[in-house]
Each structure stands twice: as structure tokens, then as C-alpha cells.
Amino acid sequence: xxxxxxxxxxxxxxxxxxxxxxxxxxxxxxxxxxxxxxxxxxxxxxxxxxxxxxxxxxxxxxxxxxxxxxxxxxxxxxxxxxxxxxxxxxxxxxxxxxxxxxxxxxxxxxxxxxxxxxxxxxxxxxxxxxxxxxxxxxxxxxxxxxxxxxxxxxxxxxxxxxxxxxxxxxxxxxxxxxxxxxxxxxxxxxxxxxxxx
Length: 197
Known about the structure:
Layout: H1 3-28, H2 35-41, H3 56-86, H4 89-97, H5 100-104, H6 111-115, H7 124-142, H8 152-171, H9 175-191
Helix pairs in contact: 1-3, 3-4, 3-7, 7-8, 8-9
């Protein structure tokens, strides 16, 4: 096997590990990410972990960054498509973030929405990576606001999105959870999005 083939195989293995960890951290929280389970889901042996990461925290950082980038790209794509229909990017963001689909599938959604309540209790390196994801979410909200909007409003709306998603997930992917999410979605669109066109 050539050096480039080995590097490519290593990169593929690394990517599978990060993908598996990204799903696991959003599905089970930080504490629910076990190295053995992640390696098994990636189709690799537990012993190969340290060829890719120096620690479990390093894996968590990579998982947060990767999962955050993927979910952000999906959200951006959805916002762009929905904004063409509604003409209102903030409304599109609120409706997508507080969608029944996002409620039902935390393993595919926003890292902040899945992990916000756990972020402050992590080791510093994981807290820093988590804070970067929060900052990116706030900036994404800010990008949908009018230029003359109060800069603090983006943080307020981001907090309302994350908080309402987490509250709905407490009820679960059921009628009660969807009703809570629907009420929050309607209230936030009415309160904020109607002014942002």
C-alpha cells in the first residue's frame, strides 16, 4: 500500500469516527459518548482510537465542530430555499429551527440545541469549542436581522430558539412536544419576524 493510500484510508477512518461521535454527542449528550461505542459504530477497533485522537475530549471537540458545520450547512440551505418563498430569512430560520423534524432528530440537528444545558460543565477545551458553536448560532441569527436591529437581539432570539427546542424535547417527539414547539414558533415569528422584512 502506498503512503498516499495509507493516508487516504486513515482520513476515511478519521472521518467515520468523527461522524459517529457527532451523532452520538447530539443523541446522548457529552457523557453518552463512549470511545468503544463510537469506534464500533465507525466500524473500527477500540485500540485504534489513539492513532486518531489524543483524548476523549479531543474527540468531543472534533465531533462538535464537525456536527456543527454539517447542521449549519443544512440550516443555511433550508433558510435560503424558504426565504425565496417567504421573503423573510428570520421567519425561515425560526420555522426550520423549531420544526417537528428538528424536534424528532436531535442526532442530525443543531449541536447547541442538543447540548446547551451540558456545555458549562465540560472540561475547558470542550467548553471553548461549545462556546464557538453558540457564537456561530448567534451570528447566524444576526445575519437574518435588519441592519438597524439592536445587536443584542440576535442573542435573545438564539436563546429563545434553543430554550424552546430543549423544552419541547423534554415532552418528546409526540403531540405535546410538537404543540409546545408550534406555539413557540408562532410566537417568535409574530414577535420578531414580522418586523424583519
